[in-house]
Design a protein that fits this description.
Elements (H helix, E strand, L loop, with lengths): L11 E3 L5 E3 L7 E6 L6 H12 L1 H6 L2 E7 L3 H11 L4 E4 L4 H5 L3 E6 L2 E6 L3 E4 L5 E5 L7 H8 L2
Length: 151
């Protein structure tokens, strides 16, 4: 995972509507980037719902929320619409940005190893540096935990 104080890797990816979104679009704002392996799965849905429910509080703290996975734009759109997410979900099917953020690696399930996306979030400060790393995300508490950390 990236470390606190590191420059956040730049990216430009398509969101759920096919619009290009870049990290530099949010210069002067904090950005929470949360990674998830697959849209519409139970844990990720709960995490996203928490962020959705706290969205206005994030706005008040000048903080943008961005979700990112390897899903297609169409799957991101379906997930976003079904859950009424008011934030962007970015599509990274090649997982190049996900890899730059060190959110991709070997996972284990039922004794088998496979490459997957980690449950990790980064809070990026107004100047584009990693301010906080959330590597042990508890889906039901994540939105409030991050919100409490934003100055």
């Amino acid at each position: 995972m990236l470390e606190i104080g590191e420059k956040a890797p730049e990216f430009t990816l398509e969101d759920q509507n096919g619009n290009s979104v870049s990290l530099t679009d949010f210069s002067g704002k904090k950005v929470l980037v949360w990674f998830y392996p697959k849209a519409s799965t139970p844990g990720w849905t709960v995490q996203g719902q928490g962020l959705r429910d706290e969205f206005e509080n994030y706005k008040e703290k000048n903080t943008i929320i961005i979700g990112m996975s390897g899903d297609s734009v169409k799957k991101q759109k379906n997930f976003c619409e079904k859950q009424s997410f008011p934030f962007s979900l970015l599509s990274d099917p090649e997982k190049s940005v996900i890899n730059k953020y060190k959110a991709l690696g070997i996972k284990k399930m039922y004794g088998r190893e496979y490459e997957g996306i980690f449950r990790i979030s980064y809070l990026i400060n107004e100047k584009g540096f990693i301010e906080k790393v959330y590597s042990k995300v508890k889906v039901k508490e994540h939105a409030q935990e991050v919100l409490a950390d934003i100055n």
